[in-house]
């Protein structure tokens, strides 16, 4: 399998939506960093579950409820295996990366007080900024931000200088969503460990583009969303190291997270259920497990190689366009290219490209500090997935030529 | 639907060379507008004499649609009072959002160049930001002179 060339045409055939025409033109979907599309295997797994196995989980003694519970808990085990986590007790289902990070901020964050510090980087998504700002407001802790360089890389020396015994948590992205930068997590996590700080990794942009081995990475928290991993929306995962999780108070109260309830005293369920109040997104979990099967079937290493080749091709082609400036030129990048075109606002670019069937993201990418740093109001961003191909890149380049024509 | 219908020559011209660009200092009222979704920001400054807009300028960063719309607006509202501006805003809003109206608006003058926006719902906010900002500045002038802020989100 690993010897065979990566057959992107076959991969594309697995994604029904890619046959869509936009304004009579072939769809070049280049916005996978915002949300990936779903392969048939995921659509069918969700459909099959809904048709044959749905009931509420962890409740009924009847057969259907047991089937649903098995499917849901099977998905949890699938996630554990995909990430190489130690135990399913460390895998909490949430609504998405954003909720995963908020869970940590609201539960673990209760131990913080004045004098404590949280360290993030300048290239975080708002989801890894705002929950910490809110926590600092509540607790009196201080938010520190490690600077970046003009190439869009972390200033590692400045980062290490900001770490001190006051640092209680380092929260950083694995791949910066607006720039594509791959962060040097190994060194960052090692630096955090030296001062006894915990580490949270926002893996939203990484988990479907490179192999993530949590036991090797050795972070304390890892958050990601299903819909960026070819799975359904409305579902995410928080991995949390069991020893850390045991010390954390529950955050949302309700059904499913309790052992016993009386008006004088409620006791909480075991891990991980204590952190999953209410009926979960069962079908979503089933779909996510199918997406992980699908991705492992393709081979994540091969997908990564394929996306790197596209990145190289697109970077070469975009650099050749006069007046085009790539924002974020880190040495180590994932399949994301942010750019601006002289005299054409990214928003206008988005509309003109759409007219050519090219779907890209334009705007601040929920990373306004990054936009401010590079002194641009917004950028256009093309991003790749397992189904992206050379024709997508060519269509993008041709459409940029059209934008030049319109704006002269 | 044709892209040329959105990016008409008038729009491209006003984007490249926005009229009444800059800031009036002193001014009688002003407001900041921003569209957080796309990062458009603009400031409108006004002078008012005898209840009418005697001068108006705008400045900021935005896409071609938002820049051209603001430029066209500053030309259209000079000499009008608040009630006339509100009425004009309502007609522009109708042109930007209402479908099934095959006839091009005849009474909107150069503002009619923005009619193509209605086919691009995601861009309506770009074209209307300046009008909301002007509304905020006028409302503010009615209360107390100074600066107001408005957002299209």
Q: What features would you describe in this structure?
A:
The complex is a heterodimer of chains A (408) and B (153). Chain A is α/β, with parallel strands linked by helices and 408 residues long. Helices cover 38% and strands 17% of the residues of chain A. Chain A has 2 domains: 8-30 and 299-407, Aspartate Aminotransferase, domain 1, CATH 3.90.1150; 43-296, Aspartate Aminotransferase, domain 2. Chain A has helices at residues 8-13, 40-52, 63-83, 97-106, 130-139, 156-162, 185-194, 214-217, 242-246, 282-298, 300-319, 346-355, 368-373, 390-407; strands at residues 21-22, 25-26, 28-29, 91-94, 117-121, 142-146, 167-173, 198-202, 221-225, 236-240, 258-261, 266-268, 324-327, 336-341, 358-359, 361-363, 379-383. Chain A has a 7-stranded mixed beta sheet with strand order 4-10-9-8-7-5-6, sandwiched between helices. Chain A has a 4-stranded antiparallel beta sheet with strand order 13-14-17-16, with helices on one face. Chain A is globular, with a radius of gyration of 22 Å. Chain A starts with 7 loop residues before the first helix and ends with a helix. The model of chain A has no long low-confidence stretch (mean pLDDT 96). With 153 residues, chain B is α+β, with helices and mostly antiparallel strands. Chain B has a single domain (3-141), classed as Alpha-Beta Complex (Sufe protein. Chain: A). In chain B, 41% of the residues lie in helices and 21% in strands. In chain B, strand 1 (29-35) and strand 2 (40-49) form a beta hairpin. The interface between A and B is medium-sized, with 18 and 22 residues.
């Amino acid at each position: 399998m690993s010897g065979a060339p990566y057959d992107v045409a076959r991969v594309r055939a697995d994604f029904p939506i890619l046959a869509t025409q936009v304004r009579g033109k072939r769809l070049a979907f280049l916005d996978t960093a915002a949300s990936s599309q779903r392969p048939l295997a995921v659509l069918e797994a969700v459909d099959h579950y809904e048709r044959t196995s749905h009931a509420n989980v962890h409740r009924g003694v009847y057969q259907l409820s047991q089937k649903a519970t098995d499917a849901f808990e099977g998905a949890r085990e699938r996630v554990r295996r995909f990430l190489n986590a130690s135990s399913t007790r460390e895998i909490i289902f949430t609504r998405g990366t954003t909720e995963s990070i908020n869970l940590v901020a609201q539960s673990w964050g209760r131990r913080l007080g004045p004098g404590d510090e949280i360290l993030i980087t300048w290239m975080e998504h708002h989801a890894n900024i705002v929950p910490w700002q809110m926590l600092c407001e509540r607790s009196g802790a201080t938010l520190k931000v490690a600077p970046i360089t003009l190439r869009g890389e972390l200033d590692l020396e400045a980062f290490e200088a900001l770490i001190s015994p006051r640092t209680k948590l380092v929260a950083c992205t694995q791949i910066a969503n607006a720039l594509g930068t791959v962060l040097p997590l190994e060194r960052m996590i090692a630096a955090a460990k030296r001062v006894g700080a915990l580490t949270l990794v926002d893996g939203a942009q990484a988990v479907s583009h490179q192999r993530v081995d949590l036991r090797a990475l050795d972070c304390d928290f890892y958050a990601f969303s299903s819909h960026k991993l070819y799975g359904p929306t409305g579902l995410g995962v928080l991995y949390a190291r069991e020893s850390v999780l045991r010390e954390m108070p529950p955050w949302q109260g309700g059904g499913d997270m309790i052992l016993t309830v009386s008006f004088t005293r409620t006791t909480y369920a075991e891990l991980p259920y204590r952190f999953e109040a209410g009926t979960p997104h069962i079908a979503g979990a089933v779909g996510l497990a199918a997406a992980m099967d699908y991705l492992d079937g393709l081979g994540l290493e091969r997908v990564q190689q394929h996306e790197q080749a596209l990145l190289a091709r697109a970077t070469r082609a975009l650099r050749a366009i006069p007046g085009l400036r790539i924002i974020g030129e880190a040495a180590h990048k994932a399949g994301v290219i942010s750019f601006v075109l002289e005299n054409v606002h990214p928003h206008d670019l988005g509309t003109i490209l759409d007219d050519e069937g090219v779907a890209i993201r334009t705007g601040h990418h929920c990373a306004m500090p990054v936009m401010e740093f590079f002194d641009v109001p917004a950028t256009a961003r093309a991003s790749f997935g397992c189904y992206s191909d050379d024709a997508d890149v060519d269509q993008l380049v041709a459409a940029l030529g059209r934008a030049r024509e319109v704006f002269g | 639907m044709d892209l040329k219908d959105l990016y008409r020559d008038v729009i491209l011209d006003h984007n490249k060379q926005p009229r009444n660009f800059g800031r009036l200092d002193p001014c009688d009222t002003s407001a900041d507008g921003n569209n957080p979704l796309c990062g458009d920001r603009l400031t409108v400054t006004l002078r008012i004499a005898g209840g009418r807009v005697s001068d108006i300028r705008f400045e900021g960063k935005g896409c071609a649609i938002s820049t051209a719309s603001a430029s066209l607006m500053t030309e259209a509202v000079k000499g009008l009072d608040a009630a006339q501006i509100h009425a004009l805003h309502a007609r522009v809003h109708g042109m930007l959002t209402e479908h099934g109206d095959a006839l091009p608006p005849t009474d909107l003058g150069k503002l009619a160049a923005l009619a193509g926006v209605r086919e691009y719902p995601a861009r309506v906010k770009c074209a209307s930001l300046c009008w909301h900002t002007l509304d905020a500045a006028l409302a503010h002038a009615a209360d107390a002179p100074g600066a107001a802020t408005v957002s299209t989100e």
